[in-house]
Amino acid sequence: QVQLVESGGGLVQAGGSLRLSCAASGDIFAINVMSWYRQAPEKQRELVATITRDGSTNYADSVKGRFTISRDNASKNTVLLQMYSLKPDDTAVYYCHALRFGVSYWGQGTQVTVSS
Fold this sequence. Notes:
It is a single chain. It contains no helices and 11 strands. It starts with a strand and ends with a strand. Strands 2, 4, 5, 6, 9, 10 and 11 form a 7-stranded mixed sheet that branches. It is mostly beta strands. It is globular, with a radius of gyration of 13 Å.
């Protein structure tokens, strides 16, 4: 089992920034991919950013150039999502996701609200 705990959400004005953290614990060995997803009200959950074990990253077009996914240098078990130039459309619950041996694990989510 893998446990994922997100933190760092909150309320921010448009143009502001936030940093989300996802701490992984449990059977973290062989986690291949960690990702951030988000789900806005009445919308489907969508992939925001992904980082693989070797550090390769990928982003949704809507966040390219504004969001950065990385691993915390102090704790490789923690994945960060740095968000800049936030827009009201970024408002959503953000979920951390881990893929290990083909099994998906999800965090409980953290709310990000961007006011106009």
